[in-house]
Amino acid sequence: MSPAEQRADGCQTRPVPPRRLLLIRHARAAGGPVDLERPLTAEGVQQAAALGAWLEHAGLVPDRVLVSPARRAVQTWEQAGAALSSGVQPIGDARIGDNTVDALLAAIRETPENALSVAVVGHNPSIGELAGVLDDGRSDPVARRGVESGFPAGGVAVFELAGSFAAVGPGAATLREFRVPGD
Predict the structure, then answer these.
(1) What residue ranges define each of the domains in the chain, with the CATH number in brackets?
(2) What is the pTM assigned to this prediction?
(3) Does Hydrolase appear among the keywords (predicted)?
């Protein structure tokens, strides 16, 4: 029995799976005069569907999904979510659309304790910046290079957290994977 499965008093406990945070930049979007109304391109729709298929295949289906109110972010999750077996319903959160690291962290920190996996569907620069500051220095080097390359549209960074979502902050997570499904 591993130490994680035995308490100090000798009683057995079940191992607690790590919490996961998925930072997702919306898929490719068209231009438009009103930023909030920019839709996904046809390529972006395919990219978002590939994202959902990858999440399902990789066993990374989130318990909770926070989505920017921007049309392209909503459409990204509609397409990705359609490929998932769980049918998790997104939560629109204007703070994700604020596009700042502080606003993203505030939204993530309100995650209920029973959630083990949270996806945030938002925008650059905040998604890429948050991915950079969360890393605890033990990240996968290939994933780290992917994040540092500019966090392209449709990209997803997968972090493991040692603590709760309420305590998430700079240096509090380990980057395990970075992908751009469909590319």
Answers:
(1) 19-179 (3.40.50.1240)
(2) 0.90
(3) yes
